[in-house]
């Protein structure tokens, strides 16, 4: 799986573009989460990721069915 | 004798379907009229409607639209062209809705298309070309999955400077081992092309 590696310049409010996150990273993360939890991440969640803070929100909310996870 | 299966067109979140004339307006809106149209092959120029359509089909092997399974919303146009079956390769081009470029959908669209091509045609590897200003959008994928085979230096003008033009490839084995799993078709792409007698 690809990763951002050690980046001292990373800040939480960077956009995904500024942080160097690409679509492959996101699909690998989504697949890993789905395969490990057996649940499907919803479109509303996946199409609204713009910043690293969104990603943090995304990971922190994985147990919250109200945040876009479909059974 | 093993059974033959249709090539996969359905992924985890997307499906592939053949391009139709009904898609031309969507392609025009993104590739010619959209804010990011300077990234697509016309590079900000406005071809005639006839030239725009002819460009879509020129030397095309497969033209697909990847759309979301949940709502049929188009995510990307994917084209395979310049097929060379003597030497086992072709080129691809991708026009993605900018909303999805940095989402999981873009990578799934490309991955599903690569799996489709490798199960449908006897290809060893698939090439793509991109100016460096586009390559940064998928730099991790480029470094992890692809091989940069050529670079034309200071080849293309954009925004006050000349940019390098990259020619890269992705192999059948990488698609079989890594890409197919990401799009939900693990084991579906043969790593080697075999000959089966009836």
Describe this structure in words.
- The complex is a heterodimer of chains A (71) and B (198).
- By secondary structure, chain A is mainly alpha-helical.
- Chain A is built from four helices and two strands; from the N terminus they run H-H-E-H-H-E.
- Chain A has helices at 16-19, 23-37, 43-46, 52-60, and strands at 40-41, 69-70.
- In chain A, strands 1-2 form a two-stranded antiparallel sheet.
- The radius of gyration of chain A is 12 Å and the shape is globular.
- The mean pLDDT of chain A is 77.
- Chain B contains six helices and seven strands.
- By secondary structure, chain B is of the alpha+beta class.
- Chain B starts with 13 loop residues before the first strand and ends in a 16-residue tail after the last helix.
- In chain B, strand 3 and strand 4 (89-96) form a beta hairpin.
- The A-B interface holds A 2, 16-17, 20-31, 34, 40, 43, 46-47, 49-50 and B 12-13, 68, 70-71, 99-108, 111, 137-141, 144-145, 181-182.
Task: Give the topology, please.
The complex is a heterodimer of chains A (71) and B (198).
Chain A: H1 16-19, H2 23-37, E1 40-41, H3 43-46, H4 52-60, E2 69-70
Antiparallel strand pairs in A: 1-2
Chain B: E1 14-18, H1 24-31, H2 49-57, E2 60-68, E3 74-84, E4 89-96, H3 104-120, E5 125-131, H4 132-135, H5 139-145, E6 147-158, E7 161-171, H6 172-182
Parallel strand pairs in B: 4-5
Antiparallel strand pairs in B: 1-2, 2-3, 3-4, 5-7, 6-7
Radius of gyration of chain A: 12 Å
Widest sheet, order of strands of chain A: 1-2
Shape of chain A: globular
What is the fourth-level CATH superfamily of chain B?
Answer: Gcn5-related N-acetyltransferase (GNAT)
Terminal CA distance of chain A: 25 Å
Q: Give me the number of helical elements of chain A.
A: 4
Q: In the CATH hierarchy, what is the architecture of chain B at level 2?
A: 3-Layer(aba) Sandwich
Radius of gyration of chain B: 17 Å
Number of helices of chain B: 6
Oligomeric state of the chains? heterodimer
* Percentage of residues in DSSP E strands of chain B: 25-35%
Decide which structural class fits the backbone of chain B.
Answer: alpha+beta
Q: Main sheet of chain B, how many strands, which sense, barrel?
A: 7 strands, mixed
What is the averaged pLDDT score of chain B? 94
Count of beta strands of chain B: 7
Tell me the helix content of chain B. 25-40%
Cα separation of the termini of chain B: 7 Å
Number of strands of chain A: 2
């Amino acid at each position: 799986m690809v990763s951002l590696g050690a980046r001292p310049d990373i800040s939480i409010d960077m956009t995904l573009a500024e942080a160097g996150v690409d679509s492959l990273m996101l699909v690998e993360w989504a697949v890993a989460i789905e395969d490990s939890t057996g649940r499907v991440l919803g479109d509303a969640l996946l199409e609204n990721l713009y910043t690293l803070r969104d990603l943090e929100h995304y990971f922190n909310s994985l147990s919250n069915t109200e945040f876009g996870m479909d059974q | 004798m093993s059974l033959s299966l249709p090539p996969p067109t359905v992924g985890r979140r997307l499906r592939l379907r053949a391009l139709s004339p009904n898609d031309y307006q969507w392609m025009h809106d993104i590739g010619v009229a959209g804010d990011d149209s300077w990234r697509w092959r016309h590079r900000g120029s406005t071809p005639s409607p006839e030239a725009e359509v002819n460009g879509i089909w020129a030397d095309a092997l497969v033209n697909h639209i990847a759309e979301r399974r949940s709502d049929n919303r188009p995510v990307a146009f994917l084209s395979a062209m310049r097929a060379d079956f003597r030497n086992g390769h072709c080129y691809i081009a991708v026009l993605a809705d900018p909303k999805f470029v940095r989402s999981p959908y873009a990578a799934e669209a490309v991955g599903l298309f690569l799996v489709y091509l490798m199960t449908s045609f006897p290809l060893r590897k698939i090439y793509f070309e991109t100016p460096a200003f586009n390559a940064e959008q998928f730099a991790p994928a480029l470094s992890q999955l692809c091989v940069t085979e050529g670079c034309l230096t200071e080849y293309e003008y954009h925004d006050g400077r000349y940019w390098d033009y990259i020619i890269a490839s992705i192999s059948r084995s990488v698609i079989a081992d890594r890409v197919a799993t990401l799009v939900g078709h693990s084991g579906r792409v043969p790593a080697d092309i075999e000959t089966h007698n009836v």
